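In this section we walk through a basic example: taking a raw amino acid sequence and producing a predicted 3D structure, encoded as discrete structure tokens. The instruction is simple. Fold the sequence below.
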Amino acid sequence: MDSFLILLALSVVGVLIWLPIYVLVLAARLRRLTERLARIEAEPRAADAALPKRAETAPKTLAAAPTPAAPQLPPPARAAKPADQNRPLVVSTERLRAATAWLVRNWVYAVSAASLALAAIFLLQYGVEHGLLPPAARVAAAMALGLALVGAGEWLRRRHGDSTRQATAYLPSTFSGAGIVALFASVVAARQLYGLIGPEVAFAGLLGVAALAMVLGWLYGPWLAAVGLVGAAAAPFLVGGSAEATWWLFPYFALVTATGLAIDAARRWAWVSVLALALGYGGGTLVLASGGAPGWFAAELAALVLHAIALPPLALMPAHDGPLASVRLVRGVGQWPAFPVRLVAGSTLAASLTLALLGTDTASESLAVFAMLAALVLALALWAKGAPALADLTALPALAFIARLAFEGSGGRLHSDFMAQMTLLREPESSAPLTVTLLLALALAGSLAAAWRSLRAADAPIAPFWAAGAVLFAPLAALTLELFWAPALVIGAYPWALHVIALAALMVWLAVLYARADAANLRRAALATLSALSLIAFALFILLSEAALTVALSVLVVVAAALDRRIRLPEMGWFIQAALLVLSWRLLLDPGIDWALAAPLWEVALAFLAASAASAGAWVLLQGLGRDRVTPLLESAGVGFATIFADIVIFRWLRDSFVGDAAATHWGMALLALPWLVTALVALWRMQTGGPLRPFRKVLAALSGAIGLAGLAGAALVANPLVNPGLAGDNAVAGPTPLDTLTLAYLVPTALAFAAARALRNRLPRAHLPLLAGAGLLAALWLALEIRRFWVGDTLWQGGVPQGELISYTVALVLVAAALLYQAIARGSAPLRRLAMAVVVLTVAKVFLLDAAGLTGLTRVASFLGLGLALAGAAWLNRWAAGQQRGTIP
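The resulting token sequence is shown next.
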């Protein structure tokens, strides 16, 4: 009964499939017969219409009797040009629209192919569910169905053809494609579902089916190729099964991809290659998500890239030529590379990104991922040496290798196993692991391959690219290991430093080779030299104290500037900027300010002064070379490092020499603000020179001035001894008047601002008045606090306001007004005269509002008497000065 139901179901499916196909065939035949009948009926009418014309023209031809002209042959039919797959992108809007339109018109064929393929797959599943046939018979039945479908398609092609002009168009491809899917499913089921065959036989069977698909794809067309590829990729998931060993599916999908690429190589159907690669990546990803081994997936990704390089051009040694993909992407001009180059670029990018972020379960799988990335670097550098269009793609797996080191060092399994063997955790006399040695050796192999390419005459146009890869790949790998792996904790500081020194020796050797090869242009030698110097500094950093790396980097800044000066190498500017960034990081953050406040002062001085001196020296060396992007940074860094060091010295002196928190007192905060104020004023002074550095100096003055003013504001408001006694009364005024802390906190900045205002009066008028105003405010604060100290002592926040103090303020205001009025008369300055009268008004308000209520007895009388006489004298002087300026008073 079950067998009868199976046959009945298959019969119904066959009828449903064949009925629309048969209708389409009949409609095509009817249309062809109709067109033929129309042509037959049109031929007699055309002949009748041509007869009178020949009769009329015949006499004229005989009368004229001209020389018979050579018969004019119709122009030869133009041979159909093959589609240029190198001009447009394969995946484009037009192609998607065309594919959609074709599918809308011919959807019946797609459904038919899917139905036939599913029939074979469901036949296998039904046998499993009901146990009707033994496993071998089930596989044989599915394989027989696939062969029958292929045979039916071939019979249709031979009998009726497969061109679009035939009524049987697409039918041979439909049947043969479904047969190919059935054959793939049969082999997969025999291995995955039933375990009837081993991996060797399975591979042989799949290889045979793939070869059959290639032959049929050559004979039929792209539709069969697409059906076969999609069906082969879907077969493992449709068949199902519970076999534990799924590793062989990764080579299987690599084989499916290779089949599609080989079909494209034979027929030049570019989209078939794109489809094949997409199926290979997608199938491998699905197997990985279903529990597949990441190591095998990494091997499949590398194999797909190698397939994309070798199979489309059918060349054992790659010879891709033309423009570089990176040039077109970065510059946005020029032609796109040929399609084979774009295909390799896409596959390499996909593989590199996936391998960089691929999660692994064991340390060996992680090592396999690194090995695959290194293999891709070596393949693109060595195997593809005759393909200049692929040269820039070598950077993709190299960058992925570096990124993988950082990713693995952030919690990967390989890094965890490595750190578990730290020196403190290992058993005595046990050897250190060779993990970092192996990883560094893989990177070193890439650097050596790049160095070899950079010295080849055939690679001369892009030799700088290869030289940069040679001097950067392995050193960057070592730096990434240091930042994310801390190898010194596992293998020891000295062995790890030896690794780095070995790389430095290699860079020196490359510098010698480049110097011999480039006698006229030492750019590559300079790059190798910089790499060697950086590695030497790196090794010193591993072995020596915190200040060693800072000093070494400072020396490298000067060396880079000297090289630029010597051989005109603008690329050194990038190194100098990077070095300044690292120096800033080390001096401010790691080890940073905390280290500078706790380390021995000589080490701190060595680090900061070396960085500042190196910036100044490099700035001097680059003068006159037009390095407008680098010299402002050098100037700012040199001044900034020196200012920060001065602040650190002041803070350490305040902390170590005084009891309490001296840095939080009025004079401590002012002292900490002074270096920044000096830096801002120096930047303002240098702004007058103009040039391209003026905007940078303006920014430097603004930043330094903001920090300095914030410190002065804290000294004048927050830490003012009049209102803030400090944590333990340590904010009291100290020292003899006027050489006391008030003078240090307020009068010294006053003198500095006043001197700067005078110096910048004519050069920077906008800064003149703000500086004078600031100086005046600080001077007034200093005078008021000194008067307060004279009457109440060092603790200004204690006691009331004595009458003598009030009178002293009045006398001080009168004297200030008189001094300003004298200066106004002497200079003939109307603004100073108005300022003097403003002080007079302030004095009057103070006397009438404060002295009248706070003074008593004769003191009050003396205050008002003095005020009256002062006002009379001031009014007379003001009137006389105004008349002198107008010329109305002699």
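Looking at the output, two observations stand out. Confidence is low (pLDDT under 50) at residues 1-29, 49-89. The CA atoms of residues 565 and 625 lie 8 Å apart. In the next section we compare this with other chains.
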